[in-house]
């Protein structure tokens, strides 16, 4: 790969990163830094230069900060509790709004296709309880019937770079989130491989760059090795 090719690849990477709405700011910074170190860094050919070591230097980050950035991108499903409606969710037909009174009963319902959760809450009014009952019956046991939740968070680093992300994510979960029980989703680690979910924009595939390592340690490389993107 010539210098001109690497410049073009870096420009393509940068354009793609800034066009991806699902990227968190920290993950965006990490991907751009990895792209710079892999493709454009003047020090990338030094024998002592390593991808992750130089990435820490470029980000002016210590190991703790770097692991936190990786942990933010761990593929997983996270329910947005802040997006749940507040108050009783039974409709007030004449008023054209939800009841909104303080809830006295609440329960989750799990989507049979995505595995995502919806949380319902209702007050003690008889008409609100009557509206609630078929929803409650439908939701009962829905978790057992639902599939593994489709991830809605993370999975962006594998979209751009080939690496042993499963081991890296697992270590990040242990160090940062103190959750050694994390398992990779069956849908895959890269967000472009996950099933499409209505209302959620699916990332486009990108020709991945390989981060070369030996015995778990990043080593010097002559240049980035592009690998085919998943389609």
Explain what this protein looks like in three dimensions.
Helices cover 36% and strands 11% of the residues. The chain is an alpha+beta fold. Strand 5, helix 8 (165-175) and strand 6 form a beta-alpha-beta unit. The protein is elongated, with a radius of gyration of 23 Å. The model is unreliable at 213-231 (pLDDT under 50).
Residues in helix, %: 25-40%
Shape: elongated
Mean pLDDT across every amino acid position: 88
Structural class: alpha+beta
Q: Count every beta strand, where a strand is a DSSP E run of 2 or more residues.
A: 9
- The span between the termini is 23 Å
Going across the biggest sheet, name each strand in turn: 5-6-9
What value does the Rg take, in angstroms? Answer: 23 Å
How large is the count of helical segments?
8
**Beta-strand level of the residues, as a percent range?**
5-15%
Largest sheet: 3 strands, mixed
Give the H and E element order: HHHHEEEEHHHEHEEEE
Which stretches are poorly predicted, pLDDT < 50 over at least 5 residues? 213-231
Q: Layout of helices and strands, plus pairs?
A:
Elements lengths: L2 H16 L6 H16 L10 H9 L3 H10 L18 E2 L4 E2 L6 E6 L6 E6 L3 H14 L2 H4 L11 H4 E2 L2 H11 L33 E2 L2 E2 L2 E2 L6 E2 L5
Parallel strand pairs: 5-6
Antiparallel strand pairs: 1-2, 3-4, 6-9, 7-8
Helix pairs in contact: 1-2, 2-3, 4-8
């Amino acid at each position: 790969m010539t210098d001109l090719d690497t410049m073009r690849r870096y420009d393509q990477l940068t354009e793609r990163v800034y066009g991806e709405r699902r990227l968190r700011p920290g993950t965006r910074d990490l991907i751009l830094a990895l792209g710079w170190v892999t493709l454009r860094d003047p020090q990338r050919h030094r024998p002592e230069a390593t991808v992750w070591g130089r990435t820490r230097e470029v980000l002016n980050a210590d190991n703790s900060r770097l692991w936190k950035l990786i942990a933010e991108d761990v593929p997983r499903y996270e329910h947005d509790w802040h997006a749940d409606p507040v108050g009783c969710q039974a409709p007030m037909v004449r008023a054209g709004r939800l009841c909104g009174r303080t809830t006295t009963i609440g329960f989750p319902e799990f989507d049979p296709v995505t595995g995502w959760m919806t949380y319902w809450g209702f007050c003690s009014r008889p008409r609100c309880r009557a509206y609630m009952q078929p929803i409650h019956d439908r939701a009962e046991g829905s978790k057992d019937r639902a599939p593994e939740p489709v991830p809605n968070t993370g999975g962006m680093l594998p979209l751009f770079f080939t690496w042993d992300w499963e081991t890296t994510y697992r270590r990040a979960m242990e160090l940062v989130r103190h959750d050694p029980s994390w398992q990779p989703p069956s849908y895959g680690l890269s967000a472009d491989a996950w099933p499409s979910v209505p209302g959620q924009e699916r990332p486009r595939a990108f020709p991945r760059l390989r981060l070369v390592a030996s015995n778990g340690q990043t080593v010097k490389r002559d240049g980035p090795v592009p690998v085919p993107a998943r389609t």
